[in-house]
Q: What sequence folds into this?
């Protein structure tokens, strides 16, 4: 309510602002605005594999689903949703690499969590409404701030300056009681110097999976100052989420009878009989970002940018535990006569409270024949992890808010890079990118269990990259690049073992062809890993995916993208990826004996991914899009177990957009319809695998038992929305 009140106060200011329109000035501001992201982005003269997506493309399907779902049709991309409908916890994999290995930056500032290295889009609901454009670089890509990209990097630029004032209201609703409301506004450019803009969004959904509800709020505020050679931006954005837990998945037998079942929050009596579900089995987290950007034109050829960031995050997830041991809660056994009580039903909250500080900078020189960028960043992360006992049937020696584990994590990350692009001949350009990165990570305290932990690690990484573009003619371009990347383990890796840092050598060879009606891009890649931290398929006791070093491994494949303008009304975009993702030698302990399984397929790495988008523009204002995605078979383990195979699936979506431009008070009225999973495919897009040794069924023998959990996705569902711009 407070934010809405602020918005209402701003409406008179927006209404009376004296806005001066000057396209020449606006063009200069646009160019200055690009300076913040240039250092970490690929351009046409850089021999890298990438896709660009602008806000107009995103807005067609921005009706409440998270960003990974909106990007699912890009090459080599697999997206998934815990709640099944794309709202709440969602994730993305690129070339088989999970979200912890996809570097994400927002205006050049690292967004990946410093410790887990993951990206939690649920903390930024409806962030898509404040995005100007996105670049997805596949492979190592160019040097970025934060952890090195080991599968891809996602570079996001938020809203730029708007020269005209407007206010905008969006409302959508759909299946599973899903609804989104967004209010957006700007003063436009005032006196060719200032602009103030903002957005507030609420998203709610019951989720496809039982009780997988989401209650999400977010905001984005921006102030801009411009004075010919200087652009200053102050940006405040963040979100608050409360989601009912749905990250446990469902076993195959339950899937057959009730694919929407959710085990989270089950409560059992003393006889092991189910009673009911715990109502507050939720994840509750708040994240706020404060960014300041200074972009300066130093001379005709030189530009400078400085970025400052502070991120504040805090929250917990609460859960009901059946028969948890006293020892895991750091409680003493209760002795009553000859009886001992050492387990109890209880409710716990596991907290994360962190601060993240970042400084980025770059100097850029550009002339007709070369471009030079020198830049870098420094970040400092401080994170508290702790567990509190909220309620317990038997509390033993517990005091109120009894704390049963506490860990303090600190991480410093500094890097500097030097990038050059030289046009050697009018048909040949050469690119180099040299980065040095220093990382220090400290972790002390007790983990959930409790288990003592003490990590004191330092890493010095040198990440060189080089390549060239061969301009065959005005329509054709060939490119080649070689890149080296190193990265450190994450907190979960340390929690579950003694991991080593990993190294990647990435070869990319591509060909691009572009004429008025046809665009083609063919790319071959070969990514060679040393000590790759691959997903084992297992989850640890707090629900995070477990990774292990696997020695030598590789990912190699071919990617193809095409665009055909069939006629003035019909366009067809398609892509496919064929790959091999192999552990060269994989060791596994089966039935008590360590075995060398030789070559095995890397987990969560489908060898075939195909995407298609058929666009029919009936008129200037009415657009139909038929979107298809095929994901081939993939394994949830690294041992090639048939039980762990996740079946292929082929899904189709329909998007309809109708834009009205009335000659009245309203500037635009856009009506959007999105039908997901049009043909009602029953499928699961994600899962996990586990195993344990059975030593009691047959005394003296060891039998390895396997099991899996699956995350079923929604059947046919829809979202319908309207956007009114004034």
A:
């Amino acid at each position: 309510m407070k934010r809405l009140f602020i918005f209402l106060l701003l409406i008179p200011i927006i209404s009376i602002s004296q806005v001066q329109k000057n396209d020449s000035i606006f063009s200069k501001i646009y160019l200055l605005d690009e300076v913040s992201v240039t250092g970490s982005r690929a351009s046409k003269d850089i021999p890298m594999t990438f896709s660009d997506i602008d806000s107009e493309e995103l807005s067609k399907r921005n009706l409440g689903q998270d960003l990974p779902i909106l990007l699912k049709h890009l090459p080599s991309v697999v997206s998934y949703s815990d709640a099944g409908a794309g709202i709440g916890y969602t994730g993305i994999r690129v070339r088989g690499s999970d979200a912890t290995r996809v570097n994400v930056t927002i205006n050049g500032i690292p967004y990946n969590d410093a410790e887990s290295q993951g990206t939690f889009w649920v903390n930024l609901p409806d962030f898509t409404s404040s995005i100007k454009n996105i670049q997805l670089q596949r492979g190592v890509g160019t040097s970025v701030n934060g952890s090195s990209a080991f599968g891809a990097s996602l570079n996001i630029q938020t809203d730029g300056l708007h020269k005209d004032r407007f206010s905008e209201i969006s409302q959508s609703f759909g299946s599973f009681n899903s609804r989104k409301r967004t209010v957006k506004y700007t003063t436009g450019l005032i006196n060719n110097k200032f602009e103030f803009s903002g957005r507030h969004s609420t998203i709610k959904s019951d989720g496809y999976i039982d009780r997988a509800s989401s209650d999400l709020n977010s905001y984005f505020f921006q102030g801009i100052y411009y004075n010919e050679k200087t652009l200053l931006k102050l940006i405040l954005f963040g979100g608050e989420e409360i989601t009912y837990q749905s990250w446990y998945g469902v076993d195959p037998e339950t899937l057959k009878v009730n694919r929407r079942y959710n085990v989270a929050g089950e409560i059992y009596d003393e006889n092991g009989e189910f009673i009911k579900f715990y109502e507050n089995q939720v994840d509750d987290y708040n994240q706020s970002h404060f960014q300041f950007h200074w972009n300066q034109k130093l001379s005709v050829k030189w530009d400078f940018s400085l970025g400052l960031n502070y991120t504040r995050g805090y929250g917990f997830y609460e859960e009901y535990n059946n028969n948890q041991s006293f020892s895991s809660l750091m409680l003493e056994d209760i002795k009553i006569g000859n009886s001992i009580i050492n387990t109890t039903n209880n409710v716990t909250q596991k907290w994360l409270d962190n601060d993240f500080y970042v400084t980025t900078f770059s100097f850029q020189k550009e002339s007709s024949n070369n471009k030079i960028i020198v830049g870098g960043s420094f970040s400092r992360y401080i994170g508290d992890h702790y567990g509190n006992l909220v309620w317990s049937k038997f509390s033993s020696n517990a005091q109120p808010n009894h704390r049963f584990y506490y860990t303090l994590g600190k991480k410093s990350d500094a890097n500097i890079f030097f990038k050059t692009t030289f046009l050697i001949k009018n048909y040949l350009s050469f690119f180099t990118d040299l980065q040095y990165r220093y990382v220090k990570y400290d972790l002390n305290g007790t983990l959930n269990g409790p288990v003592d932990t003490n990590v004191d690690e330092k890493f010095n990484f040198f990440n060189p990259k080089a390549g060239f573009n061969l301009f065959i003619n005005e329509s054709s371009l060939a490119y080649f690049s070689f890149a080296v990347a190193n990265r450190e383990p994450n907190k979960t890796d340390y929690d579950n073992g003694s991991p080593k840092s990993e190294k990647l050598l990435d070869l990319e060879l591509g060909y691009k062809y572009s004429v008025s009606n046809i665009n083609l891009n063919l790319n071959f890649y070969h990514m060679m890993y040393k000590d790759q931290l691959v997903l084992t398929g297992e989850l640890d006791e707090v629900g995070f995916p477990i990774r292990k070093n696997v020695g030598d491994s590789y990912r190699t494949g071919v990617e193809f993208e095409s665009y055909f303008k069939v006629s003035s009304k019909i366009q067809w975009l398609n892509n496919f990826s064929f790959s091999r993702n192999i552990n060269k030698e994989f060791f596994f302990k089966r039935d008590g004996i360590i075995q060398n399984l030789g070559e095995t397929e890397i987990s969560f790495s489908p060898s075939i991914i195909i995407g298609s988008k058929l666009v029919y523009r009936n008129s200037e204002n009415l657009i139909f899009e038929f979107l298809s995605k095929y994901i081939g078979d993939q394994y949830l383990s690294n041992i090639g177990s048939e039980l762990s195979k996740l079946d292929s699936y082929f899904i189709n979506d329909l998007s309809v957009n109708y834009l009205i431009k009335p000659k009245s008070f309203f500037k635009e009225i856009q009506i959007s319809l999105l039908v997901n999973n049009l043909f009602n495919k029953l499928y699961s897009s994600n899962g996990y695998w586990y195993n344990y040794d059975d030593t009691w069924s047959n005394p003296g023998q060891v039998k390895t038992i396997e099991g899996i959990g699956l995350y079923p996705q929604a059947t046919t569902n829809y979202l319908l929305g309207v956007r009114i711009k004034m």
